[in-house]
Amino acid sequence: MRISGINLPDEKRVDIGLSYLYGIGRSNVTKVLEKADVDASIRIKNLSEDEQKRIQKVLEAYKIEGDLKVEITGNIKRLKELGTYRGMRHSKSLPARGQRTRSNARTKRGKRLTIGAIKKEMAVKMETAVKTKPAGGK
What we know:
Helices cover 49% and strands 3% of the residues. By secondary structure, it is mainly alpha-helical. The protein has a domain at 2-59: Orthogonal Bundle (Helicase, Ruva Protein, domain 3), CATH 1.10.8. Strands 1-2 form a two-stranded antiparallel sheet. The longest helix has 17 residues, at 66-82.
């Protein structure tokens, strides 16, 4: 079965397989299947054409995949342009919802970088740069 350009796995149950769509989670799946009047325990490969059409018709009411991604990126871009706190956090690649950054936030900030250990060549260059600067304003 193919919905919005995404191939759903045939061996999965319908309630699990539909959650492969971006924007459709487990809570939305139950609502979709209830509106489409389809049993959740059926495997995707065993769905009839009529059931597939009913599911696709119900999913037309939801923003999924590309449309949802475009809307989310537009919202983030708007926050950045307005200069809001959340927009600034997005532009600096920091958590935007109040999480602490001292000890965690690895998924947002990336891999840890060790600061303080420098090579001998860099230490020598920095030392010579300090010596060549003129002293104070007198």
